[in-house]
């Protein structure tokens, strides 16, 4: 198989100027690492400061890429993230926000417009990969335009690198490496192919009813039970696990938070967030704002996805459902 030829030059805008990056994070060591990685990627650091500078709310010219580490957002931080999200959506700037699992729902709820990358307690390698994904997604910043095949290959490579980084982190903790936590990498599993749309795959006919929620929960429990005897990575299937969880929730008329859905996916939260974003884009999932609190959002099945799940269970039959 021929190796893909990626020709990289200094990442620049249409005027040939290096793309500017704003960095906001508490902790001198973390900021230094982020700044070093940004400069190594050929980008220009416009501003590098702590969170208080971002939260001050002063008018400032932010970069085309904004990196924010916000592990424990309070009300002021959430309001700032909401404004930053809106501003980025209008300007076309890219956002990469790192946070904790406990704060995920709050951060996700603040970012309804700009489609940021959200990283959960990331390794340094995962932050670097996030930069690579930003570069791959911005047009006219290469010496040579990437074809769609090249772009997909690059994204697959970033997932493989993330998996390797996770493995190395487990071995390297005693030697002062990049490892920041013991846990899964961010990009271990391939995402659905770009351009996939759920409606292209669904047949529009009268829909049979969804299965009993108790049966779907039993299927989920049986799938999870395998982890007691085998390495969970052998059976990782986040898309299907999330579809099952949302199917049961729809029958039960329950709302599912993004944190809950990440847990249901059975993969690291950052990986789950990428899957959720891809499945929202493909029309399988919907992001639904909380009417009582606009800072919160839930995930639910789209009607087309519910139609597909109902037809699937109707086709395989009740006796075979427990083997799903």
From TrEMBL:
InterPro entries according to UniProt: CheY-like_superfamily (IPR011006), WH-like_DNA-bd_sf (IPR036388), WH_DNA-bd_sf (IPR036390)
Protein name: MarR family transcriptional regulator
Organism ancestry: Bacteria, Pseudomonadati, Pseudomonadota, Alphaproteobacteria, Sphingomonadales
């Amino acid at each position: 198989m021929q190796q893909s030829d990626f020709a990289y030059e200094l990442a620049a805008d249409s005027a040939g100027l290096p793309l500017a990056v704003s960095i906001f994070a508490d902790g001198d060591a973390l900021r230094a690492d982020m700044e070093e990685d940004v400069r190594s990627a050929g980008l220009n650091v416009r501003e590098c400061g702590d969170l208080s500078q971002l939260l001050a709310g002063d008018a400032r010219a932010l970069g085309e890429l904004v990196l924010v580490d916000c592990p424990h957002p309070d009300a002021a931080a959430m309001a700032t993230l909401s404004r930053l999200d809106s501003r980025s959506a209008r300007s076309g700037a890219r956002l990469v926000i790192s946070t904790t699992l406990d704060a995920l729902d709050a951060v996700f709820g603040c970012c309804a417009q700009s489609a940021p990358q959200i990283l959960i307690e990331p390794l340094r390698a995962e932050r670097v990969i996030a930069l690579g994904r930003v570069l791959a997604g911005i047009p006219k910043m290469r010496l040579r335009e990437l074809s769609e095949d090249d772009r997909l290959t690059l994204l697959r490579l970033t997932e493989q690198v993330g998996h390797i980084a996770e493995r190395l982190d487990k071995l390297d903790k005693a030697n002062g490496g990049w490892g920041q936590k013991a846990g899964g990498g961010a990009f271990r599993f391939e995402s659905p192919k770009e351009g996939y749309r759920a409606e292209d795959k669904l047949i529009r006919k009268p829909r049979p009813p969804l299965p009993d929620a108790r049966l779907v929960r039993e299927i989920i429990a049986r799938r999870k039970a395998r982890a007691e005897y085998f390495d969970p990575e052998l059976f990782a299937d986040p898309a299907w696990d999330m579809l099952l969880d949302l199917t049961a929730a729809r029958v039960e008329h329950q709302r599912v938070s993004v944190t809950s859905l990440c847990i249901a996916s059975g993969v690291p939260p950052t990986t789950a967030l990428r899957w959720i974003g891809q499945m929202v884009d493909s029309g399988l999932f919907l992001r639904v704002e909380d009417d009582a609190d606009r800072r919160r959002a839930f995930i639910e099945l789209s009607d087309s996805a519910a139609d597909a799940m109902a037809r699937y269970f109707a086709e395989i039959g009740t006796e075979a459902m427990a083997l799903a």
